[in-house]
Structures are given as structure tokens and as C-alpha cells.
Amino acid sequence: MDYYERKLNAKVKAVNRAHSRANVVALELHEFFKPYVGQEVLKVDGTFFAKIKVPQYENTNSTMIYRSANQYTLNWVVKTSEQDSENTCMYYEVGVYVAELDRKFLVKLLEPQTLRCDYTLEEITEKRNIHKELRRQADAAKSALWPFGENDY
Question: How many domains in the chain?
């Protein structure tokens, strides 16, 4: 496996693992926050009230799950890393959007996302090759438009 295949292979593994974990986290958090719709869930400083025991996720060397705080959504980030050689790794992160907030109040739960987690090295390589060929064709078509370009305004 050459350098670029190793990199892509690591990325595919990182994406699949992050998506798989994010799908589980999305379902867990959706169920957890159901009873809190319409209620005040955050203190002024953006942390949860003590009575709200939000699930805690164990972080490992290759997977981290943490809350990304803002006043408009409840969301978590799943971040993965996958070794692509002895000295380097590939990182990937995906957001898990759980609910809409109005500052401190949980306004509405969002439907749990279902992310694809079965990508393959061969599939992505094929799609990249198709994209490369179509881009080459588009560049040739654009060049053929000279001196007129794509529009006249």
C-alpha cells in the first residue's frame, strides 16, 4: 500500500468509526433529553443544572466525545484518529446535533442522525477517480468557451 492509499485507508477507518459512534451517541442523547423539552436546562454560565445528569462518554487514545457549547443548539463532537504509519495518524470529527436551544431552554429535539459507516477504500478511490475525470472534462469545456466564458454580465 503506497503513502496515499495508507492515508485514505486511515481516513476511511476514522470516518466509519466516528460515524458509528456518533449514531449511538445521537440516539442516547435524544432519549436522555426527551423529558426536558420546554424546560430550562442550562445555567447562565452554559453548564447543565445539577439535577440533569448528562451521559458522560469515556475518551480513549483514538476516540473523544465532548460537548460543543453554544446558546442555540445542544451538540456534541465525536473525534477519532486512526494510525496511518508509525509516526502519523488521520483525524476526523463529526457533530451530533441533539436539540435546539433558546439560550437556557431546550426548545425542540432534533431527529437523531443516521450517518453512513460502511465506506470502503475501493469505493472512495473509484469516486475520486470519477471526480477527477469529470473535473478534467469540465476544465476542457471551460477552455473551449474562450473568449466568452460562462456568462455575459
Answer: 1
